[in-house]
Write a structure and sequence with these properties.
The complex is a heterodimer of chains A (738) and B (166).
Chain A lengths: L6 H7 L2 H4 L22 H4 E3 L5 E5 L8 H13 L6 E5 L16 H28 L6 E4 L2 E4 L6 E3 L37 H6 L14 E5 L9 E5 L10 E5 L2 E6 L2 H10 L1 E4 L11 H7 L2 E10 L2 H6 L6 E7 L11 E6 L4 E5 L4 H12 L6 E5 L11 H15 L3 E4 L2 H7 L6 E7 L9 E9 L11 H5 L25 E9 L14 H19 L3 H8 L3 H13 L15 E9 L6 E10 L6 E11 L6 H21 L27 E6 L18 H13 L10 H17 L1
Parallel strand pairs in A: 2-3, 7-17, 15-16, 19-20, 23-24
Antiparallel strand pairs in A: 1-2, 4-5, 5-6, 7-10, 8-11, 9-10, 12-20, 13-18, 14-15, 14-17, 18-19, 21-22, 22-23
Helix pairs in contact in A: 4-5, 10-11, 14-18
Chain B lengths: L3 H10 L1 E5 L2 E5 L7 H8 L18 E4 L2 E4 L5 H4 L3 E3 L1 H4 L7 H8 L9 H14 L5 H8 L9 H11 L6
Parallel strand pairs in B: 1-5
Antiparallel strand pairs in B: 1-2, 3-4, 3-5
The chains are: A alpha+beta (738), B alpha+beta (166).
The structure holds FE2/S2 (inorganic) cluster (2 copies).
């Protein structure tokens, strides 16, 4: 089923649209009336109903980050009305233009900005229409509270709903339509509450997990005990005890479908499958060494400034060297992934929490053997997702099962499925070397990275279900842009960043929050502190002296002053086990500016680190909704502290072994520090991302603070008590050698 | 403990429990977790499936006014008990004071953990109407959140108790 509805149907359906099953089945004749999803058409993004309410069609989705209020704020501002008049439709491939995946911190910066331009185009058109009706010049008119009227308040006025007819605007989105001046903003910049919170905390919000269709069955896919194992046989005899349970087997894809979720689970448990003895993995302990061993598929110099090789080859200088490692990590979403699929012989509708509905649409179409335009993905909220968790795979599971049984099927992953099979953040290994810092000058710096190489042009992470079922799909690796921020942002004379590209990753990778940048910043900002420590200079003052960018200087000094930074070399000479550290990033060297200062205490006997205070100064340009932004930043800080202190996916030669919250622990309430977020609003700058940048400097600030507290330099994540103790022992041994 | 035969006999006729103040009779496997009964048989999806192992708290409900993990309670064990789910506390128009505090503090990102957080808070405030921040942290220690909403949640707990917010 593709969405082919008249505009009036769409508007009448209102909120029910989001849930989707109120949609009437279209007849082919209605196809001509399909709503455009063309991103160059104003009607692609925006519809105005006769009562003056506005529907905004957004290709980006709200995963809990607050787009559901921020994007309406941007549209409302340009349109001259309140957000309560706006209904936002998100990530429905039949209704929303493809604005790219909700990833890379682009929700506002790209998605919101595009919709703002659509709203500005609409405002221009509405004023033009009203001017013609009133027979007055356009430049005396504006939209105020949803009415077009003269700026002076005199003369006629007309509601925007009276100006646009049934067929919409029929205009191209005008990239030059004038935007309102930030000085006049009434809606943008306000901490408006998110519209979904009341429903979320009263149990009235429909997550994909809660979505039900009439006649829907429950499916459960049985994944092999080893990654890549083949299915040798299935003993179905145990299933006799269950009424109406069906087995679906397509090559190595094995699932059961039942009328009730409980029956599906029990049947899946009872089923005896025999799998090949397969050992395709290297085990997590072998990853670090394996990254240096290859096989490699090439190398790249991604940053080259001056002649780093010559500077580092100077026989008169003792080059400082260090190696940093970031392990494989899971998205570890709170709710295991879920999806509902209704696959018919000629069409399919998939309800999914995907961050990339448009992007995955061709993959599902190919998997199901359907034309792309007969497959519709409808976004429903899932459990928070930070790149790509198991949602897209659960959707593929549901789609294959639904196709096999000819009924709508819901698939709910288990905790083991999610931690075991979600695509993982890839490991990163970095070796750094630099000439010693002298008088605030570093002559040469080199970062060498070992990273899995993302496959060029690969549209999406390959789907588990398609792979198991032997259905052709483009194979390869997805990682996100993981080489950025591998060079110091400070005025180092000669810098080189080299990447050694690995042919493969230890587990199927995907992007995970702030892909690559967190580990790169951990290494670069940690190593920069090592240079400062060696030179016995203060890390903050040195950064400020070497930084050329005023916005960077501002965030650094504000974050540091929030924790009462007192300049001195590290480690802390008072040596009471308390220390502070700072780190800074200009995200991707072109986006948000963030500095984080942190205070920690370290127990020398146990090696246990307690984070006491975190201060974050954040400049992402124009702030749309400061309250939602603060929450995003706090979330990024807490999640990244968790990743830094606790998280590593463990696996043996067969499969992931950290498949519950005991073996893959995350940070809990007991360890939540005091957090201060200092937002620097820049009304005249473009809005930039708020979801990723604040995560980036966290590990380095933490490692720098630990060093300040006790003289231990930890360069491997997770920063466990054992690693702190080992680093302490190393520091003590060095001291003795003097 | 009732005998297995007794449990099965009861199940055939259906097991009675009070859910959000209403008497409900549920048939089927008495050994299935209450969470599945609530979500699938009774259409109450406020309680969420997070782990099925008692490790995360997403599935919490109140059973005779105690917060319990409904993934760890069987239908048979819930027989005759009074169950309150997130929906039963309040709704969007008339939220429970704890829900109202969560709304005021905007204490949800994805909100998948919110059910457990609200339930744990209601149970805490019933025991300790004016908890200290540390007591609040302790009471919520077994409830996981991946989005990092913890500080807002703590603020909501303190707001609901009428205390200063952290
Ligand atoms: S789902 Fe019950 S504790 Fe996690
Ligand atoms: S808000 Fe997403 S898990 Fe807590």
């Amino acid at each position: 089923m593709t969405a082919v509805l008249s505009r009036r149907d769409l508007l009448r359906a209102g909120g029910a649209l989001v849930v989707g099953f109120a949609l009437p089945r279209p007849s082919p004749a209605q196809a001509a009336m399909a709503k455009t999803v063309d991103a160059t058409e104003l009607d692609g993004f925006l519809a105005i109903s006769p009562d003056g309410s506005v529907t905004v069609y957004c290709g980006k989705v709200d995963l809990g980050q607050g787009l559901r209020i921020a994007i309406p704020q941007m549209a409302a501002e340009e349109l001259g009305l309140g957000v309560e008049r706006i209904t936002l439709i998100e990530g429905d491939t039949a209704l929303t233009p493809d604005q790219g995946p909700t990833a890379g911190s682009t929700g506002i910066a790209k998605g919101g900005v595009q919709i703002r331009q659509a709203a500005a185009t609409a405002r221009q058109a509405l004023i033009r229409l009203a001017a013609a009706r009133f027979d007055v010049p356009e430049d005396g008119l504006d939209i105020v509270d949803g009415d077009v009227r003269s700026l002076s308040g005199e003369g006629p006025s007309l509601g925007i709903g009276d100006l646009v007819g049934e067929h919409g605007f029929g205009l191209k989105l005008d990239p030059k339509a004038p935007l309102r001046s930030p000085a006049s903003y009434k809606v943008v910049g306000k901490p408006l509450p998110r519209p979904d919170v009341p429903a979320k905390v009263t149990g009235r919000h429909t997550y994909v997990h809660d979505f039900r269709l009439p006649g829907m069955l429950h499916g459960k896919v049985i994944r092999p005990p080893a990654v890549g194992a083949s299915l040798l046989g299935v003993d179905e005899s145990a299933l006799k005890a269950f009424k109406g349970v069906r087995i679906v087997r397509i090559k190595d894809f094995l699932g059961v479908v039942a009328a009730s979720e409980w029956d599906a689970l029990r049947a899946a448990d009872a089923l005896k499958a025999t799998w090949s003895q397969t050992e395709n993995l290297i085990g997590h302990e072998a990853v670090r060494d394996a990254m240096k061993a290859g096989p490699f598929v090439g190398e790249d110099i991604v940053v080259s400034k001056g002649d780093a090789a010559t500077a580092l080859a100077d026989p008169d200088v003792a080059v400082l060297k260090a190696e940093y490692y970031w392990p494989v990590q899971s998205h570890a979403s709170m709710g295991p992934s879920c999806a509902v699929a209704d696959v018919k012989s000629d069409s399919a509708t998939l309800w999914t929490a995907s961050q990339a509905t448009h992007r995955f649409r061709p993959a599902y179409a190919a998997m199901l053997g359907l034309p792309v335009d007969m497959v519709r993905l409808i976004y429903l909220d899932g459990s928070g997702c930070y790149g790509m968790n198991g949602h897209d795979d659960a959707c593929a599971d549901a789609a294959l099962l639904s196709k096999a049984v000819g009924k709508p099927v819901r698939v709910q992953w288990s905790r083991e499925d999610e931690l075991g099979w979600d695509p993982k953040g890839p490991p990163q290994l970095l070796a750094l070397e630099a000439t010693p810092m002298e008088g605030g000058v570093v002559a040469g710096w080199r970062t060498e990275m070992w990273l899995p190489k993302a496959t060029a042009g690969l549209p999406n992470v390959p789907l588990l279900a398609a792979q198991a079922a032997g259905i052709d799909q483009p194979m390869g690796l997805v990682t996100g842009l993981i080489t950025q921020n591998g060079d110091p942002p400070y005025g180092v004379a000669a810098v080189q960043v080299k990447v050694n590209w690995l042919a493969d990753a230890p587990l199927r990778p995907s992007n995970i929050r702030a892909p690559g940048k967190i580990a790169n910043s951990f290494a670069v900002e940690g190593f920069f502190d090592e240079l400062c420590n060696q030179a016995k200079v203060d890390g903050l003052i040195t950064r400020l002296q070497m930084l050329k960018d005023l916005r960077g200087i501002i965030v650094l000094s504000r974050a540091a002053s929030l924790i009462g930074w007192k300049p001195r070399p590290s480690p802390n000479p008072e040596s009471d086990g308390v220390g502070r550290g700072v780190a800074y990033v200009h995200y991707k060297h072109s986006e948000t500016y963030v500095a984080v200062a942190m205070e920690v205490s370290v127990d020398r006997d146990s090696g246990k680190v307690a984070v006491r205070r975190v201060a974050c100064a954040h400049d992402c340009g124009l702030v749309i909704n400061p309250d939602a932004l603060r929450l995003q930043i706090e979330g990024a800080i807490i999640q990244t502290l968790s990743r830094t202190l606790l998280e590593e996916v463990t696996f043996d030669t067969k499969a992931v072994t950290s498949t519950d919250w005991a073996s893959y622990p995350i940070l809990g309430f007991a360890d939540i520090p005091d957090i201060t977020v200092d937002l620097i609003n820049q009304p005249n700058q473009p809005p930039m991302g708020g979801g990723e940048a604040a995560a980036t400097p966290i590990p380095a600030a933490l490692a720098n603070a630990i060093f300040d507290a006790c003289g231990a330099r930890v360069r491997t994540v997770p920063i466990t008590p054992e690693r702190v103790k080992a680093a302490l022992a190393e520091a003590d041994a060095k001291d003795k050698l003097g | 403990m009732p005998t297995k035969a007794a449990v099965n006999k009861k199940a055939a006729a259906g097991i009675a429990l009070a859910v959000n103040g209403q008497k409900r009779t549920v048939a089927g496997d008495p050994n299935r977790p209450l969470l599945y009964v609530l979500r699938n048989d009774l259409g109450l999806t406020g309680a969420k499936f997070g782990c099925g192992k008692g490790q995360c708290g997403a599935c919490s409900v109140l059973m005779n006014n105690e917060a319990v993990r409904s993934c760890q309670v069987t239908l048979a064990q819930a027989a005759g008990k009074s169950i309150t789910t997130l929906e039963g506390l309040g709704d969007i128009k008339t939220p429970h004071p704890v829900q109202a505090a969560f709304i005021a503090e905007q204490a949800a990102q994805c909100g998948y953990c919110a059910n457990g957080m609200v339930m744990a808070t209601v149970a805490l405030l019933a025991r300790t109407p004016e908890p200290s921040l540390d007591e609040a942290k302790q009471a919520l220690a077994g409830n996981l959140c991946r989005c990092g909403t913890h500080r807002r949640i703590l603020r909501a707990v303190m707001r609901a108790s009428g205390r200063a917010q952290p």
